[in-house]
Amino acid sequence: MPEPERLQIVVNGQPRAVAAGSTVASLLQELEMTARHVAVEVNLELIPRARHAEHLLSAGDQLEVVTLVGGG
Amino acid sequence: MATTDNQHDSQSVDLARYARQVRYAPLGEAGQRRLLASRVLVCGCGALGSVIANTLARAGVGYLRIVDRDFLELNNLQRQVLYDEADVAAGLPKAIAAANKLRQINSEISIEPLVTDVDFTNVEELTDGIDVIVDGTDNFETRMLVNDISLKRKIPWVYGGCLGAEGQTMTIIPGETACLRCLMSDTPPPGTTPTCDTAGILGPIINVIASMQAAEALKIASGSLAAINRQLTIIDLWDNRIRQVNLESLRASGECAACDRGEFPWLAGERASHSAILCGRNAVQLNPSDRAQASLDQLAAKLATVGRVTQNKYLVRASIGDYVLTLFADGRAIVGGTDDIATARGVYAKYVGT
After folding, report:
1. Rounded CA separation B172/B177 (Å)
2. Domain holding B279: CATH number?
3. What's the confidence (pLDDT) of residue B191?
4. What is the nearest CA distance from A62 to chain B, expressed in angstroms?
5. Cβ within 8 Å, pair A72-B253
6. Torsion angle of alpha carbons B210, B213, B214, B216, nearest 10°?
7. Over the stretch B290-342, which tens digit does the pLDDT of each residue have?
């Protein structure tokens, strides 16, 4: 069996490798983050939660996973 | 005719003290007069709130309603710029100390301090006649409540939050921009996100974010809606990152329970908790389910039998063993010395009763 292909992406400024076929939803799962509590931007476009499961990641994608902060 | 008189007053107010701001063309004299006629709610007056209130008072917002549930402690002074050691020594509630200071800064505007927690039972009243709400709170439950009332009453609000060296802000214009729930559909469960207690907080990020919030409030209050920032801004002063996130696609997706479906569970009281861990304080606030005025004198007499008691016009404080119990006239209690809600409830039940 060949190794499954890995894609290089950037998450919050840090390089990261994910399996080919990864989606925004599967990445959040890997990061142990809940979609309800974060907003995800891919290549400067915010992805609505309803599209997280269908939005496929591509090599070179730049992601920002935004967690709101609550102090003040 | 009251209205005519007010207009006359507003026209005759001397603008000399605001000269440098009036000189700024996008604001101008017309914008300044609108500021003087505007009414702003500063919701929470800790770190963010004290910078916001300070800036808006100096800028000549005509009426500031300042609501805060907490009292001052020495570890507030690192970042809560309106307050000083004398305020801490006097054990003053933040709203009162803020109003005292702001009246020395600008005696020509109206300032209404309120020592209370903003919750679903009083948020309608607190936002009556308000043009803009500015977020100085330290928790998401109150922010979701503010988001609900903002959408329901169509009052713009300016979110701000900070943690560590990071801060975020966004401006919500109901029906026009994305709202807080577009961005985050639910609050994280308590204890699952870092807080000021666990991650700490740096003073400079507070000043940056609160100043951005104040600028947004000035734009809205002076009628310059076209100038507002329609992006979520995220700044980290330690990692040197500044990000702007465009929220248009969230608004367009039409999947928000609040702005698309008009569901306001925080406003309905369905999500109300009766206790809250206070940010950076090692303290828990307990809120009675029926808020009633408490007799501070009676409470002081009762607590004097178990610990060292101090009292001022606004609160009674008792040091009992490892805990400091503070009781407010509106029936609330803050239990210091623990960040565990069950422990705090136990202390309250033991010394005050259930």
Report:
1. 6
2. 3.30.310.10
3. 64
4. 13
5. no
6. 160
7. 666 778 998 999 899 999 999 999 999 999 999 999 999 888 999 999 988 88
pLDDT grade, residue B346 (50/70/90)? confident
Residue B245 has its nearest CB partner, among A35, A36, A39, at A39
| pLDDT tens-digit readout, A19-29 | 999 999 999 99
Query: What domain range is B304 assigned to?
Result: 275-351
Strand order in the sheet with A62-67: A14-19, A6-11, A62-67, A38-42, A45-47
* Residue of chain A whose Cα is closest to the Cα of B280: A71
pLDDT of residue B5: 42
Report if residue B266 sits inside a domain.
Answer: no
Distance from CA of B6 to the nearest CA of A (A): 36
Taking the mean position of all CA atoms in its chain, how far away is CA B69? 9
Nearest residue, CB atoms, A72 vs list B161, B187, B248 = B161
Other C-beta atoms closer than 10 Å to the C-beta of B44 total 32
Instruction: Write down the mean pLDDT value for chain B.
Output: 91
Number of domains chain B is built from: 2
- Comparing B60 with B330, the larger pLDDT belongs to B60
- Chain A contact residues (CB < 8 Å to B): 13, 34-39, 41, 44-51, 64, 66-72
The answer to whether B57 and B105 have CB atoms below 8 angstroms apart is yes
Q: Which of B160, B184, B246 sits opposite A46 (nearest CB)?
A: B246
Contact assessment for residue B243 and residue B255, using Cβ atoms and an 8 Å cutoff: no
B321, B221: one domain = no
ipTM of the complex in this document: 0.87
